[in-house]
Amino acid sequence: MRPSRRALIAAAPALALAACGHRDVAQPLPPARPLKATARFPVGTSLMTGELQEPQFVGLVRSNFSQITPEWEMKMERILGADGSLHFEAADQIAGFCRDNGLRLHGTTLVWYSQDPPAFEALKDNRAAFEAKLREYIGAVMGRYKGLARGWDVVNEAVAENGDGYRGGVWAAGLGDDYARLAFEMAREADPGAVLFLNDYNLEQMPAKLNSFQRLAERLLKAGAPLTGLGTQSHLDISLAKGEAGVAIKALARFGLPIHVSELDISTVGGDFSLGGDASRLEAQARIAGEIAEAFAVLPAHQRYAFTVWGVRDKDSWLRGGKSGHPDDQPLLFDDDGRPKPALSAIEAAFARAK
Ligand code: G3I
């Protein structure tokens, strides 16, 4: 019989304590304090303009987070029209929310293999025109949020899905394999003060992908690209083995660059938890959340760029929507009713332990 939601929430602190490896759960954790009050570094979430109309959502963001990543409205798909025109109304709304609430902004993303807008498709056989258009786009977008955006995902998901090689979509077609270095140089010209990230996913789960990501970072740095930050998206799930959650952070730390846990969510579907049901799924999620939070929190201060979750409440998650979405997935730190979950307590406990 599934435990009631009320029973689960009541058990949350104890579950979190158990999930942090403290088996003596006699004294449950105190209710989690707002995350940003405990962290010695920015704690972020993604959002989109529609969510800014919801008072509960806005309240949770204001209480817990200090940085915002627009989930999609600062990407080319929303800004760049088919005719090459630029549309900033949604992005400006999010930027305004950040300014009004003293929130740092992180921009995602400038060059992404999975977005090949018609305005660039049309130029891919004319390198000079393609390069000029990309320089103009990056200059316009980054220039608009200069001083508010602390950093940008300049190149997103450049490593092949299986980790064997690289992908560049229309960007490689238009600029050749050197597209990533050029994008970083254009970004540096556009905002000399921004932290410029290479960002990717499955770096915890796939050693081959983590290796290729590091080789690309090394190649870019060797070529003189102004790569100044490394992002691990950290889209995880509860089947992740003990000790795996911090693998990417520990590997990337050697570069000495700021690290961004940029899109954390921990899917609770899948895996063999049929025995324990919801409680064991949420305990597994809290264990993993505590592990990655610990790995990030113990980094040297100059390498703790931000710890960002990809949404606020479970129902806000991309994992609930679309064809591959799962209506029962509980991937985030607050439940559908905006109540904190064991994973939030586990993260808060890890942040509190950090120096
Ligand atoms: O809100 C509009 C709606 O009004 C319209 O009717 C509908 C159909 O056009 O589109 C809706 O916007 C969609 C938006 O999500 C909100 O649901 C966009 O089309 C859709 O492209 C957008 O998807 C985003 C996706 O990136 C592509 O930008 C997801 O929200 C976002 O979670 C996802 O985030 C990515 C990261 O950028 C990179 N890492 C993986 C991560 C998850 O896929």
Features:
355 residues; alpha/beta; TIM Barrel; 8-stranded parallel barrel; 9 strands; 40% helix; globular; disordered N terminus; binds ligand G3I
Q: What is the rounded distance between the termini?
A: 42 Å
Q: What gyration radius follows from the Cα positions, in whole Å?
A: 20 Å
User: Helix share of residues?
Assistant: 25-40%
Q: Write out the distinct hetero groups bound to the structure.
A: ligand G3I
Q: Helical segment tally?
A: 13
Would you tell me the structural class of the helices and strands?
alpha/beta
The run of helices and strands is HHEHEHHEHHEHHEHEEHEHEH
Supply the CATH superfamily name: Glycosidases
Which strand-content bin applies to the residues? 15-25%
Overall geometric form = globular
Question: What is the total domain count?
Answer: 1
The low-pLDDT segments are 1-29
Let me know the largest β-sheet: 8 strands, parallel, barrel
CATH topology: TIM Barrel
Q: Within the largest sheet, what's the order of strands?
A: 1-2-3-4-5-6-8-9
Structure characterization notes:
- The chain has one domain: TIM Barrel (Alpha-Beta Barrel), CATH 3.20.20.80.
- Mean pLDDT is 91; it is low at 1-29.
- The protein has an eight-stranded parallel barrel.
- It is globular and about 60 Å long.
- It is α/β, with parallel strands linked by helices and 355 residues long.
- It has helices at 5-19, 35-38, 55-64, 76-79, 89-100, 118-121, 127-144, 169-175, 179-190, 207-222, 247-252, 277-297, 342-353; strands at 43-47, 67-70, 104-112, 149-156, 195-200, 229-232, 235-237, 259-267, 304-309.
- Strand 7, helix 11 and strand 8 (259-267) form a beta-alpha-beta unit.
- It is built from 13 helices and nine strands.
- Helix 1 crosses helix 12, helix 7 (127-144) runs parallel beside helix 9 and helix 12 (277-297) packs parallel to helix 13.
- The chain is 40% helix and 15% strand.
- Bound molecules: ligand G3I.
- Ligand G3I binds next to loops.
